[in-house]
Amino acid sequence: MFPAGEEVATFLVSCRFLLPRAWEESLHASSLNGFTLKEDDDVLYVAFPSFHRIEDFIVTGSEYGEGNIQTGNEVFSGCLKGNDDQLALVHQGALKIFLHIMENTDFKTKDDPVKLALLSVVKNENTPSVDASNLAIKLSKKNCTRVELEWYKECCERDDIGGYYDSFKNQNDKKDIDANGRRLKLGEFWDEIIEMWESHALPSDFRTQNKWVNASMTYRELVEPLDIAYYYRKSEGMGNYLKDGRPHRHKVLQKWLEEKEKTRSAAGQIVRTKLPFLIPDSCFWAHVEEALKDLKEGLHQRKGNLQKFEDYVTKLINDRNISSYVFLERSSFMRWWQEYKQVQSPEWKLASPLYKIMESESWKG
User: I want to staple 286 with a disulfide (CB 3.0 to 4.6 A). Which of 10, 42, 241, 313 is the partner?
Assistant: First the structure.
């Protein structure tokens, strides 16, 4: 909200007498594609469309220009106290307009802590774009490391050693050791990005930018299988990656993708006709490892879990969301499959969709 007229540069962060009308204007703006301007009682209301409920935000902290905003939406960039001593959020879109007003008016900040706090937030607002540009340069350099891991994957498939997941887990060759070094480098890079994001050092729309959504998706699909292999190699089958071992970065990057997918129309969804180079479910091999443990404990004891895994794999194949290297003869999945079908009854073989797919090799398409 901005007072109209000569004092247009005064930024009203919070005022209990104006908030009801401001809330009314914001509700109206939420149904539009752009912001609205409306003057009433010498106050100019600038309302931004928002698709987030106020209940989604929990704000703590009370220092000028400081605070902690606990939200998965990351729409707001700062937390302030207004003139009525009430906590208020500063929307990044509002900050940009505020910055424009300050640059084009005689804006004084002396003896006004709220104005000083806003100036501090605006100053910090300019930093994320610089940080994002630097990360883009780093990403282009890290792409070389990613390509080297893709080449490693292809080499493992040509060598008929069960695919890059099993090769990496066994660590029997120098190329596996080299791949581990590349895995660690890429992990450090994405950990840095997540840390910057969570400390509000990146633009609010960073996680929705196609460049970063696609880069993070490729990273996760390519490298998380190696993280899973490392985990089960070190834990010697005692742990559960999905419950206890999954790195924070993979959870965050998966959430970015899922939220991006919600904004895409049905027409924009991928319909596959061929098996992909990488498995979209980057946790696939963790499911395989748990299925192997379930099978070891006994079919009858773990029948429910094993049936869920069988249905899961069947759906992946039918949706063309599984990679061909999974079916290499020496892969962990094929080891599970050979053991699993041996302990099944003749009735199961007649009724199981997965059995028909595997025996006829119709997964090849």
Answer: 241
Residues 6 or more apart whose CB falls under 8 angstroms from that of 169 comprise: 229, 230, 232, 233, 332
Q: Do 215 and 222 contact (CB within 8 A), yes or no?
A: no
Termini Cα distance of the chain: 59
- Residue (of 152, 214, 137) closest to 183 by Cα position: 152
Residue 218, amino acid: T
Q: What is the pLDDT of residues 219-271, one digit of tens each?
A: 999 999 999 999 999 987 788 999 999 999 999 999 999 998 888 765 556 67
Amino acid at 16: R
Q: Is the pTM of this model over 0.85?
A: no
Would you say the C-alpha torsion 109, 60, 95, 46 has a positive or negative sign? negative
The answer for residues whose C-beta is within 8 angstroms of residue 175's C-beta and 6 or more apart is 152, 155, 156, 167
Query: CB within 8 A of 126, min separation 6: which ones?
Result: none
Q: Hey, which bits of the chain come out as E strands?
A: 2-3, 36-40, 43-47, 58-60, 68-70, 76-81, 87-91
What's the chain's Rg over C-alpha atoms? 27
Report which of 288, 274, 275 is spatially closest to residue 162, judged by C-alpha positions: 288
